[in-house]
Design goal:
This protein is mainly alpha-helical. It contains six helices and two strands. It is 50% helix and 8% strand.
Length: 100
């Protein structure tokens, strides 16, 4: 199915240390459930790590394996992930994007 909803990788992908647990999803609340899965995944530092001082973002292998689903180029991938981040992590990701 195209276009690919990148959030599916946060909900169903397996094969990495950062493998999300597979859960049941409902048709009625699929959009909200995928959003929650994306937010929870991005909040884990093993999946999306940030170093504010060095302006460095480290990403899970899932983001490398399926990079094309997240965006064209590293900045777009980080921008896609930043939309699911909260609080300090969101602020740092936004700052890192502005520095590049």
């Amino acid at each position: 199915v195209l276009p690919v909803d990148h959030r599916i990788h946060f909900a169903l992908n397996c094969g990495a240390k950062a493998c999300p647990p597979v859960k049941w999803f409902t048709e009625e609340a699929l959009d909200e459930e995928l959003g929650i899965a994306a937010q929870a995944w991005v909040e884990l530092d093993d999946n999306v790590g940030v170093d504010a001082e060095k302006a460095v973002v480290t990403l899970s292998q899932i983001c490398n394996w399926y990079a094309v689903d997240f965006g064209k180029g590293s900045q777009e991938v980080v921008r896609t992930l930043a939309q699911y981040a909260l609080g300090d992590k969101k602020a740092i990701l936004t700052d890192v994007l502005c520095r590049k």
